[in-house]
Amino acid sequence: MIQLLPFATNNMLISTIKTAIQSLLHNKTRSLLTVVGIVIGITSVITVLSAGQAIKGLIIGEIEAFGSNYIQVEVKTPSTNQASVENAFSQVGGATITTLKESDAEEVAKLQNISAYYTAIMGQEIVGYQSEIEKVFLFGTNSDFLKIDTGEIDTGRFFDKEENQSLARVAVIGSKVKDNLFGDNDPIGKSIKIGKEKFTVIGVMKERGASFSLDMDGMIFLPVKTLQKRLLGIDYISFMIMQLVDNNLADQTAEDVIFTMRELHNITDPDRDDFAVTTMDQAMEMLDTIILGMQFLLIMLGSISLIVGGVGIMNIMYVSVTERTFEIGLRKSVGAKSGNILWQFLFEAIIITLIGGIIGIIFGLLLSILISIGAKSQGFDWEFSISIAGIILATSMSTIVGLVFGLYPAKKAAAMNPIQAISHE
Amino acid sequence: MTELIKVQDLKKQYENDEIVTKVLHGVSFSIKQGEFVAIMGPSGSGKSTLMHILGFLDQLTTGKYFFKNNDTSNLSDDQMAEYRNFEIGFVFQAFNLLPRTSVFDNVKLPLTYAKNPGDINDKVKKAIEAVDLTHRTNNLSNQLSGGEKQRVAIARALVNDPALIFADEPTGNLDSKTGGQVMRILQNLNKQGKTIILVTHEKYTAEHARRIIKIRDGLIESDFKVTNHIEINDGDELLK
């Protein structure tokens, strides 16, 4: 027997718990209403943790499918941090960085540890085939794209180096674009209109399914130079992906890329960098941080509900203590010590929050299953998982809420004078 | 007979917002084991305060209180709770049973807090049997008549086999017939050796005891043996 608890015998402990349960059962409706706040709090904590795990799995799955031996070089607003809000805002706000060029990629790719690369620029245009018209994202890249990306050709072929150099009007369409424009017809060799230019469809990409990043199925892939010159009238790219020979040297290679880029762009002050270099490991870390941050925020929101629930419990416990003043007096007059009374009410608070916690865990898991079913029906490879850590966290959180918010009313009960309490009406 | 209670110059005063109310002004007496004593006095005389101090529900201000020859004048709250649990049984005017709780569980209550409760089932059954309520064991307290409720309260006071039973106006909420039954049970318990202290303001009720200590204005007015005490035998009805 734990000496902290004032129970000389197991009988005393069991009776105290039994008394607590009985008194909760006497007021079923009130007890249930009291736990609502706790149920909502725990449900959200469990759901957030479970969804967080699934999202993480999903993104990691996508990255792993892509492979980890890559370095990405993308444009960045000088004097900002790549992952910073300032960078994002300045780009969303219309500050277009036009300094990253196809020629940069060619130079960087000369580094020893780089085996292949692709460049990318994106645009959006009205695309038409016969009477079908659609606004479609255009993805301009070079012929090595499929060496690096996980996409595959379904029918036809991808464009080659010459077609890129000669600004050929050829297009490889995503599966969704094919379905929307051609239905069941074979699109290979057909002519489509992108903007005001006519293009020949030379390939169709395999369906990739829903993704957290870009909807590749809804895109048209064009030679990067064709897109730049014929459609967008620009000469820059927005990012490039470099494939590494040896991923163990990723960090060193990233340093080399930065060095080369600064030379190419005549940058001496690192603060003036107009590009950002990220290894896949760094990208993973960034994702981890973002997901963790999101989870933390959502758990904090769930915790607010727990605190509100806790205050509700404190309120009800106060009412309960006042209502049962006579009972407290009687128990004391037949020999209950202050500690016995304290623990009786603490147990009530803990039991009620624990019940709320268990209901919350069940609701949270049900909700997570529903979300997983919904996400799967949308094509996401969403793995439902029970977070054991989440359940332990939820259970201990509800117990702590019960302890903390039950303590004050329980202390009030324990401090009662038996004579005054027993004569209380 | 050995001495159970001995008080010497017992004084009690309450202080509330610097207002001092003196309730007991120096009381001395002793009670031997097996006695049946009535503490009698009008309301405000201090008899309830005296019972609370003797029953370890309250602490004295000055003076000495010996229980079974132990000085119990300065006990901690927990020690007082232990004395209430082992040594004292209370029977209150208002019965004070737990509502919506069975007779069995009501009688069991003091054993819940006992250090060595022993065979709880056996003790509770015997206590209920002693007040002739075996047939009501599983009834809820609110399903009982007033007289039955008071008998449950007596069973609860008995269950821990205490040295002393306090009965505070035990017939106050009862009609004369059921009141008589309660007094008969108390007298029977006294015959079996239990020390009983009856607290009342009624002369008639007090005369069921063998000795009366009269309290007035916080002092003992008189302390005498009852020569012709009222004896209720089994089957008698109390006639007021």
Automatic annotation (TrEMBL), chain A:
GO molecular function: any one?
Answer: transmembrane transporter activity
Tell me which PANTHER family the record gives: ABC TRANSPORTER PERMEASE YTRF, MEMBRANE COMPONENT OF TRANSPORTER-RELATED
Principal place of residence: membrane
Q: What is the lineage of its organism?
A: Bacteria, Candidatus Falkowiibacteriota
Is Membrane there in the keyword field? yes
This chain belongs to which protein, by name? Multidrug ABC transporter substrate-binding protein
Kindly list the places in or outside the cell where this protein is found, as annotated in its UniProt entry: Cell membrane
- Which residue ranges run through the membrane? 32-51, 296-321, 341-374, 386-408
The protein's UniProt keywords, in alphabetical order, are: Cell membrane, Membrane, Transmembrane, Transmembrane helix
ABC3 transporter permease C-terminal domain segment(s): 300-418
Positions of the MacB-like periplasmic core domain? 31-257
Q: Give a yes or no for keyword Ribonucleoprotein in this entry.
A: no
Question: One GO CC annotation, please?
Answer: plasma membrane
Membrane topology category = Multi-pass membrane protein
User: InterPro entries from the entry?
Assistant: ABC3_permease_C, MacB_PCD, Macrolide_Exporter_MacB
Automatic annotation (TrEMBL), chain B:
What is the top-level taxon of the source organism? Bacteria
List the PROSITE patterns hit by this protein, alphabetically.
ABC_TRANSPORTER_1, ABC_TRANSPORTER_2
Among SUPFAM superfamilies, the record links this protein to:
P-loop containing nucleoside triphosphate hydrolases
Stored InterPro entries? AAA+_ATPase, ABC_transporter-like_ATP-bd, ABC_transporter-like_CS, MacB-like_ATP-bd, P-loop_NTPase
Carries keyword Transmembrane? no
Name the UniProt key words of this record, in alphabetical order.
ATP-binding, Nucleotide-binding, Transport
**Ranges of residues in domain ABC transporter:** 5-238
May I have one GO cellular component term? membrane protein complex
**What are the recorded GO MF terms, alphabetically?**
ATP binding; ATP hydrolysis activity; transmembrane transporter activity
- PANTHER family, per this entry? CELL DIVISION ATP-BINDING PROTEIN FTSE, LIPOPROTEIN-RELEASING SYSTEM ATP-BINDING PROTEIN LOLD
Its family remark reads: Belongs to the ABC transporter superfamily.
Provide the protein name. Answer: Macrolide ABC transporter ATP-binding protein
